[in-house]
Design a protein that fits this description.
The protein has 298 residues and is of the alpha+beta class. 31% of the residues lie in helices and 28% in strands.
């Protein structure tokens, strides 16, 4: 029902009929009992395709095939497709080589006990670890876990317009910003002042999405482009490499639980200081950075 509501919102179409069609079609499905995909050849790790999911996608496909949503494929895809990014799946994370391979050097409870300024300083230090004087980290995202908690950290660079509240930059997000959609002329981005935004949505595999994604407007304005060349790279209008996407995993700082996929990870976008200075000179207002983290209980 939530997906139907989002489709209605995104494509400006009354989709109240979709739920009835899915319910009617689901009762007719007879070919899903064998739709169990084994992961890694291990039957106990199979991924089941539920009747309602199969029915939902088949009904949507039929409606689209018959021309119902011609011209709005990008917003429709951002609602119904996974946020998993093929380019990230092709870039295996490396072990975090700092702080004895730990993203946080304190437990999550100890992090929570700090003041806001202390939290921001710690996060900025983490995102900038190992960076040379000739480079700048534009932003990034990280996840850390304990037995009962998940910490989600984020850092971004934003244009400091007059009366700009940094909290607005922290919580700017886009749904399912995969490069396939991001490069399309039909991609419509919400107005904001960030160079990087949260990428939200449901991923098919743990750690398979870009948690912090470049603003399309920023890339277009600066003449930058994201390419895949043994990893995600940033090139300027002359095709010169000026930055890269980094992806690491770390060791836990606290006792974990039986959800083994909850591995601490960190992603960040790094550019040359020369490229950063060039884009700063293109703007009338200064570029500032902000970082924060939220802790969620399981």
């Amino acid at each position: 029902m939530e997906s139907i509501e989002r489709i209605t919102e995104e494509v400006w179409d009354d989709c109240s009929d979709i739920e009835c069609k899915v319910a009617a079609y689901m009762n007719k499905i007879t070919d899903t009992e064998h739709m169990l995909l084994n992961v890694g050849g291990r039957k106990q790790c199979g991924v089941a395709l539920y009747d309602i999911n199969v029915a939902f996608l088949r009904v949507l496909y039929k409606e689209w095939y018959q021309g119902r949503w011609d011209g709005v494929e990008i917003p429709l895809s951002r609602v119904i497709l996974s946020t998993s990014e093929p380019y990230v799946l092709l870039q295996s994370p490396a072990i975090w080589p700092y702080q004895e391979n730990k993203l946080l050097n304190v437990k999550i409870d100890e992090f929570e006990a700090q003041g806001e300024d202390g939290k921001e300083k710690m996060l900025k230090n983490i995102f900038n670890m190992g960076i040379s004087d000739s480079e700048v980290v534009l932003g990034g995202a990280l996840s850390e876990y304990s037995y009962k908690k998940e910490l989600a950290g984020f850092m971004t660079t934003y244009i400091d317009f007059p009366n700009m509240e940094k909290d607005f930059a922290l919580y700017t997000c886009e749904r399912s910003v995969r490069l396939l959609f991001h490069r399309s002329d039909e991609f419509v981005e919400e107005k904001h002042c960030n160079l990087l935004v949260h990428n939200i949505g449901v991923a098919s595999f743990k750690g398979s999405n870009i948690m912090c994604m470049f603003s399309q407007r920023a890339l277009n304005h600066f003449g930058w482009e994201i390419i895949f060349d043994e990893g995600l790279k940033i090139v300027d209008s002359n095709g010169e490499e000026i930055g890269r996407f980094e992806y690491y995993y770390g060791l836990r700082t606290d006792m974990g639980n039986n959800v083994y996929m909850n591995q601490p990870v960190i992603q960040r976008w790094v550019v040359t200081k020369e490229a950063f200075t060039e884009i700063q000179n293109m703007l009338s207002y200064s570029l500032e950075q902000v970082a924060d983290a939220k802790v969620f209980n399981f």
